[in-house]
């Protein structure tokens, strides 16, 4: 089985590509979803965060106050480092188990997408890294249309991310979704899938 890490900036078309890969038979795993599972009340991530950040970051019903923690970690790099230090090993362990299960089912490809794949070191588990990109101008317009952001809000979110130049350097394949037609993305995705599976055989 080939394990692919899918990276790319905000509104680059990653979710669209994941849906297309799923149609082709790939097992798709969303790192942000894995994080949410690990942070359910009583789970390991939930317990580790409670111990590290204290009960102030939890709601009355016991759930993690994601908004409050997000506000802290995205405005304080030390706090983000602390959160990453507790979450990344748990996410890695969870993914290892998930990939073993997927492989046992005879799946040809597993694709993992996540906000912090690069920063987490999770890419070490991947055979290939695929970058989904789109021209900055296109991404900015998509963000304004899809999320209702102002021009400044869209720029701020794009600027806060790891640079595409770094991702380009580590990518083994690149899918460009700048074209307004999702069909153009679909054709590139089919080619990447076919080529990667053929290479893995
Ligand atoms: C801070 C938390 C609680 C915020 O939760 P919330 O539901 O409000 O937001 P969500 O998870 O949807 O993330 C919102 C956006 O933040 C960014 N983001 C999330 N985690 C990180 C991170 N560790 N580093 C940089 N950016 C991140 C992404 O751009 C994402 O789209 C949550 O994101 C978290 O626990 N993150 C740390 C774990 C992690 O790195 N997960 C990604 C694994 S690949
Ligand atoms: N050729 C194309 N390929 C992919 N997406 C496209 C294309 N043309 C327009 N879009 C649109 O771009 C928007 C962003 O795509 P998508 O949600 O897949 O991005 P993303 O990288 O997952 O974003 P985020 O990081 O914010 O989750 C969607 O509304 C999608 O329909």
From TrEMBL:
Molecular function as annotated in GO: ATP binding; dephospho-CoA kinase activity
Keywords: ATP-binding, Coenzyme A biosynthesis, Cytoplasm, Kinase, Nucleotide-binding, Transferase
Gene Ontology biological-process annotations: coenzyme A biosynthetic process
Catalytic activity field: 3'-dephospho-CoA + ATP = ADP + CoA + H(+)
GO cellular component: a single term: cytoplasm
Keyword Transferase annotated: yes
Pfam entry (one): CoaE
This enzyme's EC code(s): 2.7.1.24
Pathway: Cofactor biosynthesis; coenzyme A biosynthesis; CoA from (R)-pantothenate: step 5/5
Record-stated family: Belongs to the CoaE family.
UniProt xrefs under PANTHER family: BIFUNCTIONAL COENZYME A SYNTHASE-RELATED, DEPHOSPHO-COA KINASE-RELATED
NCBIfam families: dephospho-CoA kinase (TIGR00152)
Name of this protein: Dephospho-CoA kinase
Species the sequence originates in: Gehongia tenuis
Name of the gene this protein is made from: coaE
């Amino acid at each position: 089985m080939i394990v692919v890490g899918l990276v790319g900036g905000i509104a680059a078309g990653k979710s669209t590509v994941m849906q297309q890969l799923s149609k082709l038979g790939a097992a798709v795993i969303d790192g942000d979803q894995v994080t949410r599972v690990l942070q359910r009340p009583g789970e390991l991530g939930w317990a580790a965060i409670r111990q590290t950040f204290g009960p102030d970051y939890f709601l009355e019903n016991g759930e993690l106050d994601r908004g409050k923690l997000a506000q802290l970690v995205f405005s304080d790099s030390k706090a983000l480092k602390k959160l990453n230090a507790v979450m990344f090993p748990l996410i890695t362990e969870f993914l290892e188990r998930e990939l073993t299960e997927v492989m046992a089912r005879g799946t040809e490809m597993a694709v993992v997408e996540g906000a912090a794949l690069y920063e987490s070191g999770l890419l070490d588990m991947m055979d290939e890294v695929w970058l989904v990109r789109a021209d900055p101008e296109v991404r900015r317009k998509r963000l304004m249309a899809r999320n209702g952001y102002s021009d400044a809000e869209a720029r701020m979110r794009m600027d806060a991310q790891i640079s595409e130049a770094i991702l380009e350097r580590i990518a083994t394949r690149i899918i460009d979704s700048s074209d307004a037609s999702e069909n153009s993305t679909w054709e590139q995705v089919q080619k990447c899938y076919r080529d990667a599976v053929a290479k893995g055989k």
